[in-house]
Each structure stands twice: as structure tokens, then as C-alpha cells.
Design brief:
Elements (H helix, E strand, L loop, with lengths): L3 H31 L5 H30 L1 H5 L7 H12 L10 H44 L12
Helix pairs in contact: 1-2, 1-5, 2-5, 4-5
């Protein structure tokens, strides 16, 4: 395969990293703004929550867009195959079951698919981790403010 997928993934990782860091910095600023005048523990929790929430969601969105753009690269090795051929190639890659003949077209496609997935699956894993970091961060903000009765507590949640 050409170096194009390597460079595409490298650019996507670089872009995702920078946007995640920028989102985290914005999240810290938002956390400081929202927790102004609160006790130190709540302030720290809101700042960490803002960092995780905004940074995580920004990174997730960036990685999702990058993966969408790379969908043609990830599906290229199985393009043009019938359902049985796609199953054989995917089985060879995911289960480690070798294709019948070593130099057959299916074996070459399986090698291409394995290479593409070895590049793109770490980005998918990072997207998953960033998404859950964003979810956890938003929950930390909500829980810390409800627990201490902070400024973010809304009138509708006062009956909790």
C-alpha cells in the first residue's frame, strides 16, 4: 500500500491532539468561570470536569470527522468482493485464520485490510476514550455542584 494512509492517519492524530488540547484549555477556563466564589474542592472538580468534558467532546468530534473522511481507505481492500469474499478477508484479519492460498488475491486483500486497520483502529480507540472522558467530565461537573449546592445548581434540581 502507498504511504497515503499513513500520512492521513498521522495528520488526523495531530489535528485531534491539538483540538483536544485546545478544548481542554477552554474547559479549564469555563470551569474556572463557572466555579468562581466556590469552595476549593468544588472549584477543582468543576475545573477538571470542564477540562475533560470540553476537551473530550472536541477530540471525539475531530476523530469522528477524520474517520468519516478515511472510510474510503478502510473499505478499499474489500471493495468489489462478494459477501463470501468479504467474510473470508475479514475472518482472516480478525480471527487470524489464514486464507486458502498465500499469494491469492484474497490473501493480498487481507494483508491490505490488516495494514489499514492497524493504522485506523488506534484512532478509533482514542475516539472511544475521549468520548467517555467527555461523558465522565460532564457528570463530574453536575455531581460536584449538586453535592455542595454550588452556583450551577438549577431551581428544578433543588428538590434532590
Amino acid at each position: 500500500m502507498a504511504d497515503e494512509p499513513h500520512e492521513t492517519v498521522r495528520r488526523a492524530v495531530r489535528r485531534t491532539t491539538w483540538i483536544t488540547v485546545l478544548g481542554a484549555v477552554v474547559g479549564v477556563g469555563v470551569g474556572l468561570w463557572l466555579s468562581a466564589g466556590e469552595d476549593p474542592l468544588e472549584r477543582a472538580l468543576v475545573v477538571v470536569g470542564g477540562l475533560m468534558a470540553i476537551g473530550g467532546f472536541a477530540g471525539t468530534a475531530t476523530a469522528l470527522i477524520a474517520q468519516r473522511r478515511m472510510s474510503s481507505v478502510t473499505s478499499a481492500p474489500t471493495t468489489g468482493l462478494d459477501a463470501a469474499g468479504k467474510r473470508a478477508v475479514q475472518k482472516a484479519v480478525f480471527a487470524g485464520v489464514p486464507v486458502e492460498q498465500r499469494e491469492s488475491p484474497l490473501a493480498l486483500r487481507a494483508a491490505d485490510l490488516a495494514e489499514v486497520l492497524s493504522l485506523t483502529l488506534p484512532l478509533a480507540t482514542a475516539q472511544f476514550v475521549l468520548l467517555y472522558g467527555g461523558i465522565i467530565g460532564s457528570q463530574v461537573i453536575g455531581l460536584s455542584c449538586r453535592r455542595t449546592g454550588g452556583a450551577l445548581r438549577s431551581a428544578s434540581s433543588s428538590s434532590w
